[in-house]
Task: inverse folding
């Protein structure tokens, strides 16, 4: 685990009680800082469950889970400011620069969020140490509690 100068705002155990996925699908392990419309969080990847099964002879961390982590970071910010309901990743764009390898320890997400009612637009920079991994722009919609799902 990387050493951080920030105070931990949320640990993984606290995040599992929010509206985020649980178990293996919860990607965010720690949120270090939430200030205004910005947050900093990390995904612990050392020994991550995906490496033995995602290209076993040439393992890399899946891009889909990087996108999922970015969406979860935006949803955490929404939860933190009081938005309640079911988060849905409605749209995303992503640019991948470098792979995350089994020798890496943590992925750092630096996130900026804009809100328009129940729509949260993120700008997420993912890095390992000083190496840029990806930039992701997720749009997360929080479906209000009590809203009936469309069929």
Result:
């Amino acid at each position: 685990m990387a050493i951080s100068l920030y105070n931990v705002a949320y640990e993984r155990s606290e995040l599992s009680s929010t509206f985020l996925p649980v178990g293996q699908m919860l990607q965010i392990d720690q949120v270090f800082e939430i200030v205004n419309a910005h947050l900093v969080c990390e995904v612990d990847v050392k020994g991550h469950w995906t490496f033995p099964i995602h290209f076993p002879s040439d393992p890399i961390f899946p891009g889909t889970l990087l996108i999922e982590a970015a969406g979860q970071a935006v949803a955490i910010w929404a939860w933190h400011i009081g938005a309640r309901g079911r988060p849905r990743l409605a749209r995303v764009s992503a640019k991948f620069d470098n792979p995350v390898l089994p020798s890496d320890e943590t992925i750092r997400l630096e996130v900026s969020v804009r809100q328009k009612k129940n729509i949260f637009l993120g700008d997420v920079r993912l890095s390992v140490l000083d190496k840029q991994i990806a930039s992701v722009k997720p749009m997360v919609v929080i479906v209000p509690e009590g809203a009936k799902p469309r069929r």
Q: What stands out?
A: The longest strand covers residues 131-144. The two ends are 43 Å apart (CA to CA). The first helix runs from residue 12 to 15.
